[in-house]
Amino acid sequence: MAAFFDADDPLARAPDAAAALRFGSRFRLGVPKRRDLEFFGDREAAELFGAAIGILEEAGGTRVEVSFAPFRNAGQLLYEGPWVAERLHTTQALLNENPGAVLPITRSILEDARRYSALDAYRAQYELAALRRAVDGAFATVDVLLLPTAGTNYQIAAVAAEASRLNTNLGLYTNFVNLLDLAAIALPAGFGESGLPFGISLIAQAFRDSAMLDLGTRFQQIVGLPLGAAKV
Predict the structure, then answer these.
(1) How far is CA 184 from CA 37, 69, 148, 203, 219, in A?
(2) What is the set of domains in the chain, with CATH numbers?
(3) Rounded-to-integer distance, Cα 150 and Cα 201, Å
């Protein structure tokens, strides 16, 4: 189970009890600077994100602007750096034995990982370490970071036509979380006039999952959305 230390897992870590503490009635809410936000032309998503900021301020948050740059740059390493080789490692047998079982765009991304060297991997690790230091600096000024879960919604046909670019857009606010050793939860945050949903993510340092779930509950109690994926 993810909530407990597993001694049989060599990569498992004991949770930090102090990190599990709730944020309290007042907390510092990190929000990207306006120039760092990208909604890919989706006006409704931008408006719903602004509304979410107001709701979390009502829940006790004090807005603090932070630079999104180190988060964004770390996210770019996931598919534009040697970490994609980890995905190749786990799928190599399948690709060798039955490459047709993998979607062409996915296969292309995985096969591209063969070009990375050990030198590339070590260089990227140093780059990521510098980005983690910058992110630690950001979290010294805020308790939790608020982001859109995705900047917009795309139709399936559009993604199929431009899979690499649009999937990169969809991952802008999430791809960095694991690389930076952060914790995150996603919350529904409203509907546009088109009826399509919009969501937000709360992101904090490792092991703060329970604290974010508590804050997410407070958010949902204020926003009062219906259950399910439709406005019913």
Answers:
(1) 18, 18, 12, 4, 15
(2) 26-81+130-223 (3.90.1300.10)
(3) 9
Distance CA 209, CA 3 (A): 9
**E-strand spans in 15-153?**
27-32, 61-66, 144-148
Edge to edge, what strands does the sheet with 144-148 contain? Answer: 61-66, 27-32, 144-148, 197-205, 182-191
54: which 2 tokens?
Answer: 């107001």
User: Both tokens of residue 125?
Assistant: 């690790």
CA torsion, ordered 165, 169, 172, 175, to nearest 10 deg: -50
The encoded tokens of residue 45 equal: 């998503």
Distance, CA of 205 to CA of 182 (rounded, Å): 5
Q: What is the pLDDT of residues 101-148, one digit of tens each?
A: 888 888 888 888 889 999 999 999 999 999 999 999 999 999 999 999
Q: Rounded to whole angstroms, how far apart are CA atoms 199 and 48?
A: 9
The sign one gets for the Cα dihedral 139, 144, 149, 152 is: negative
User: Rounded to two decimals, what is the model's pTM?
Assistant: 0.88
